[in-house]
Amino acid sequence: MAEFLSYFRQDRLPHIWCPGCGNGTVTGALVRAIDKLGLDKNNIVVVSGIGCSSRAVGYLDFDTLHTTHGRAIAFATGVKLARPRLKVIVITGDGDSAAIGGNHFIHAARRNIDITTIIINNNIYGMTSGQASPMTPHGMLGTTAPYGNVEYNFDLCELAKAAGATYVARATTYHYVLLEDLIAKAIMHKGFSVVEALSQCPTYFGRKNKIGGAVDTLNWIKDQTINVKAAAALPPEKREGKILIGELHSIEKAEFTQQYLEVIAKVQRANPSYARNKGVPGCELNSD
Amino acid sequence: MVEKVRLMQGNEACTMAAIAAGLEFYAGYPITPSTEIAEMCSEELPKVGGKFIQMEDEIGSISACIGASLTGAKAMTSTSGPGFSLMQEAIGYASLCEIPLVIIDVQRVGPSTGMPTSPAQGDVMQARWGTHGDHPIIALAPGNVKECYELTFRAFELSEKYRVPVIVLTDEVIGHMREKVVLPDPGSYKIPMRAMPQNPAGYKPYAADPNGGVPLMAPFGMGYRWHCTGLFHDENGAPSSKPAVASVLMRRLNLKVENRADDLADYFAEGLEDCDLAVVSFGSSAMAALSAVRRARSEGYKVGMFRPKTIWPFPTATVRRLLAPAKRILVPEMNLGQLALEIERAAGCERPVIRLGKVNGELFHPDEVFAAIKEAL
Known about the structure:
By secondary structure, chain A is α/β, with parallel strands linked by helices. Chain A has 13 helices and 10 strands.
């Protein structure tokens, strides 16, 4: 345990999350995955948006960027394209990534830019105290869906895949070992990778929907899921209504920043006079 | 030294100046009448090892620029009215987090989609107050193509020096007009560079003199491991909602630019010393205004001209001093009186300020301003 504390800004703890919240579990899984991979802390930038889950970056001892609501992936795109050598990880919530930031999410997937996006999906807007999100299931309650949500939620993993993400996985805060493993794989994947972490919000989602406390909400999530490998062996009627967890999509495809660097090399080869230019003046310090 | 003389449009001059200043990252979204800047960056930046990306919208564009700037890259975006409106939240973020950044706003007629291919100057107040909360901002307004080059370069100098987003307010006419520009020889000028810390040990990302000081900015990815947040933060970058922390931060941020308002003041002035009437105009309106002022002088009228190149921070003391002889002030601008509001505030107590607004998408004709001068006298 103690060795993982070195990944945190201990002077910024304790965190602001409610007792029983799943955000700490996902943040812990990220830190352990980074530790397991043996990555250099100085080469990692963690970016987040606005919401409960996005507060995670304030506690992490990396270069961290807590952005505006919904724009984490757009900020991260700038970091990654400017300095392709950096590992760029986004922590975002379901409202942050699927509502206000939905456009940046699908376009980053389309570009296949090498960013790992961890979406902590707790089915609700927690920070503003319990409004329905694009991930609130149909018929369930939120403070802005007092008679039951008449809208339908996204399947974020299918959305990411359809938009062009080259690594897509889902786990839950209940399936911790799987979650940590999938985050590690996503970080090592070259391209846009997405891990949806289903997580409990006992304070607003669990209570509003009369599911119960943290453990009940965690079990409510667990009971809906089925591992993608186990599901393959089941007849369709047994898979009906279940949420698949595990590695859902993984393909190799040329990555955006690498392709851009190839364009630069090609342009400079074709223009020997530019090749004499040692890059942009004044920017050598941190160039790749 | 061989000087390179080129015929170019204002948008091109902005791009050339940005690259000369060391532009390394451009993110943007197509919008008339600014699109040439994006097109040119897509072609020119790879040649010098820089990066261009066409984002999904203007919010994404400025967000990507902020991310790139945090890694130490000089970053720029360009847009026009509707896109500039979309960027406002992120401009506030960059102001608060002290991210160097240059935004070229090639103004067109608004509100809304308005008249996309026609010039206007309706973003004067949006440039100052478009984002919520009190915040520091610098806005420069070129009056011709040569100044597009000079002031875009200056925008990078100021942005890097004071860690503040700098807006270059041009308009459709300045952006598309072609004029001669003498390009400086590379090596004949100093590349603007932000001040960086030397050692990660004990680095405090927001430590600075509370009376308007500028903190040292560490690039991401260099071992400093600092936290950048749009929440109010203390000198360590830790979020805080303590009134004392908020007060120190807000005062320092705003004094950073306010304290330097008159050092930052850049302007053109002619014939103000003995004038009865001062004409105040900027950007492409000022071309017609100056022509009218000179004609009036040649016909014996005591008329002077003041053209601010620094719009924000507004050069209040300079305006007060230079316009002191004037008995009346005429302000031709392609809006219904935005710059005039500042002129009234700065110099309007002692004399009438006459607004000459135009919002039909047409440039001023010198005759129009001349007629207004005669009427005002």
